[in-house]
């Protein structure tokens, strides 16, 4: 395979229609935690490709967050609006259980806390469950909180002060994470301009914050004068065209896989744009889910998510010292922890 993954599992249950892939990138630091995505992939190969990329990102995210967790990802092939059934989710749960705790599932695109409640009826290894079932509930709250901490760290690194007061932040996508982020930014004294493909999402933000400006679409947003660009919608937001016109000095957002290709980080670097790697700053959600494993306590999880500020500052400082992209520095630091701490598993303990 050549991807460096420990295990890739193909799951099929004809009666329920389940077709899924579970990719485990690494268990060097602990069980591989990562969400389950339910998406109408065009082909099985597309599903595998996505699972491999997402599980690797989860391994690095969990490493940089200081968690004793590896990285994994599950993807279910299908349209969640039409194909999701109790039978299918429970069949998926049995496949998760068959891995014996090597993979811990949580929510992702196309799955909800309620879905994980169903999956959990067949496995001990489903997390990110609803509050009424003892879970951590909606993880977007701490995802946005973590992004805000990362943005404060980037502001400290670039401008010498950990605040967005007096700065303009452009937020692309104001769904769950983006809207919570806008709340934080407004409270901090930033000027905010937003856009979203869903007019209702924009309306809900404007009802809470009438002073927020609105761009008609992302193409217009990235050309609007601003200091910080926050991609909070789909992946691949930072393509060559966007980077070429972006006026921002900092990019820091909640979306996963923001870089359209491997060379995008270098393009940002050459333009003098400070990039806070997505899997570094959006780790608040996984911190929230991990806390559920110990009996969820929101205050404790939020306190842990504040460490994203220090982690981001450490990555940005390391990148500056080597004159390299923060994306390269983040990968290096994540890999170092996986190698150094994971090595301890070779020290045998008495039984």
- The biggest beta sheet, please? 6 strands, parallel
CA-CA gap between termini: 36 Å
CATH top level of the largest domain is Alpha Beta
The coarse overall form would be globular
Number of domains: 2
Average pLDDT value? 95
Number of helices: 14
The appropriate CATH architecture of the largest domain is: 3-Layer(aba) Sandwich
**Count of DSSP strands:** 11
Instruction: Find the CATH topology of the largest domain.
Output: Rossmann fold
- SSE order, one letter for each helix or strand: EEEHEHEHHEHEHEHEHEHEHHHHH
Q: What is the CATH superfamily of the largest domain?
A: NAD(P)-binding Rossmann-like Domain
Brief summary of the model shown:
Helix content is 44%, strand content 16%. The protein has helices spanning 44-64, 86-98, 113-119, 140-159, 176-187, 199-208, 218-221, 240-245, 264-270, 278-281, 284-292, 298-305, 307-322, 326-342, and strands at residues 7-13, 18-26, 32-39, 70-77, 103-107, 168-172, 191-195, 213-214, 228-231, 250-251, 274-275.
């Amino acid at each position: 395979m050549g991807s460096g993954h420990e295990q890739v599992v193909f799951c099929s249950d004809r009666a329920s229609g389940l077709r899924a892939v579970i990719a485990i990138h690494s268990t060097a630091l602990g069980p591989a935690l990562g969400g389950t995505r339910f998406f109408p992939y065009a082909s099985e190969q597309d599903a595998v490709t996505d699972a491999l990329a997402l599980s690797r990102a989860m391994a690095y995210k969990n490493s940089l967050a200081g968690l004793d967790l590896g990285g994994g990802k599950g993807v279910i092939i299908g349209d969640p609006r039409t194909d999701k059934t109790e039978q299918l989710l429970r069949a998926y749960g049995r496949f998760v259980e068959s891995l014996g705790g090597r993979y811990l599932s949580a929510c992702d695109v196309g799955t909800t806390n309620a879905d994980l409640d169903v999956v959990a009826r067949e496995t001990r290894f489903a997390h990110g469950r609803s509050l009424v079932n003892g879970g951590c509930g909606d993880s977007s709250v701490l995802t946005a909180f973590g992004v805000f901490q990362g943005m404060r760290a980037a502001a400290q690194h670039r401008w010498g002060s950990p605040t967005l007061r007096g700065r303009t932040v452009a937020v692309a996508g104001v769904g769950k994470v983006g809207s919570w982020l806008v709340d934080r930014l407004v409270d901090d004294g930033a000027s905010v301009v937003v856009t979203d493909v869903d007019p209702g999402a924009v309306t809900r933000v404007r009802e809470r914050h009438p002073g927020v400006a609105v761009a008609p679409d992302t193409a217009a947003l990235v050309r609007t004068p601003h200091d910080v660009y926050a991609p909070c919608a789909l992946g691949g937001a930072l393509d060559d065209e966007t980077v070429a016109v972006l006026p921002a000095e900092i990019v820091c957002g909640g979306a996963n896989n923001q870089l359209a290709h491997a060379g995008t980080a270098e393009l940002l670097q050459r333009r003098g744009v400070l990039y806070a790697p997505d899997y570094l700053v959006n780790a608040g959600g996984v911190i929230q889910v991990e806390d559920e494993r110990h009996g969820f306590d929101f205050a404790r999880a939020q306190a842990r998510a504040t460490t994203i500020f220090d982690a981001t500052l450490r990555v940005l400082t390391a990148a500056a010292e080597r004159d390299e992209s923060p994306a390269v520095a983040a990968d290096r630091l994540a890999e170092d922890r996986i190698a150094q701490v994971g090595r301890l598993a070779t020290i045998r303990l008495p039984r």
